[in-house]
Amino acid sequence: MKVLYYPGCTLKTSARNFEDSAKASMKILGFELEELERWNCCGTVYSLSSDDLMHKLAPIRNLIRVKEQGDNKVVTLCSMCYNTLKQANELFREDEDARYKINSFMEREKDYEGDVEVIHMLTFLKEVVGFENVSKKVKASLSGLKIAPYYGCLLLRPRSAAIDDIENPTIMEDLLKALDTDVVDYPYRNECCGSYNTVNEVGLVVERTYKMVNIARSSGANIIVTSCPLCQFNLDARQKEVKEKYYDFQEMPVVYFTQIMGKVLGIDSKYMGLELHYVKPELLI
Asked: Is the separation of the CB atoms in 271 and 246 below 8 Å?
């Protein structure tokens, strides 16, 4: 079964292991991720200014592309892409004036009606594939792996875009348990990693990473799992700066949920892309 899929920019570069492991895993589950044709950058971040319609054009244009391919649903992997597309879509549906202005500005495009559903892969796995069906495909055991699920901000905020309960999400834990892995209770699973402060406030992100990795370890984890390429970068690559500041710091690998899924489903190691991580996840190699 083919599923229309929006990749976004990062999954074609530094997070290509996220995309590769997802595609290979979904194929084992009986689904083929079909890349959206003529997609463009989603804009990366949803603008919070109520009158800033210019930054809503990029995500809406992608939803027009979905309609052009004859579909009304699109699946995303990246948390930021999901949030940006989802919020722009919700604004379009709720604000008649914004809808008119956006369609008028993109006069060469067919008018968009707000009738595309934006779905995150975790939701698709839960509601369409079914975690029980995922569990039936498990081939390998990851004994010794203690996983701290990390949602970050954009899968849970704002409420209109949340894929689960904002304060007590369980969808990632439920998937990981279906994959027969050992999940720990991680109290920082919905805290911010520092996001784009990694560009001009590296020290802030270093402190966040130091604290979040240590809390994961004190919770019993030896690996962190996420769905956001920026979170993955901050919590993984920034451990280099953490080590330079805190001599007693112990590194911890940070991987995508699709890499855990791929490993237990038995995908070829060439789709895992573990060499792209700063802290090598030895327990998955």
From this structure: no
